[in-house]
Design the sequence.
């Protein structure tokens, strides 16, 4: 179950990464005096915050998964 969640999160992270880069391009191509500029920056910051939170969650899941694998390997080696 952990492996499936990790894989799912990695897919979501890849998708968010693409969205972040597209939003950055949109910001770079928008005049800073445009009324839309600040809204784009807010959207970008929200995407980055979401990416960072999911990244931290995924790192924790990976650590937990690796610990479970190590415990399993120790059990197999002990037999």
Sequence:
């Amino acid at each position: 179950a952990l492996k499936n969640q990790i894989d799912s999160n990695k897919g979501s992270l890849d998708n968010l990464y693409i969205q972040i880069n597209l939003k950055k391009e949109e910001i770079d191509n928008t005049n800073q005096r445009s009324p839309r500029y600040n809204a784009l920056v807010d959207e970008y910051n929200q995407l980055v915050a979401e990416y960072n939170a999911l990244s931290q969650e995924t790192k924790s899941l990976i650590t937990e998964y690796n610990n479970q694998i190590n415990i399993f390997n120790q059990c197999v080696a002990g037999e």
Remarks:
- The chain has a mean pLDDT of 96.
- The chain has two helices and no strands.
- The radius of gyration is 19 Å.
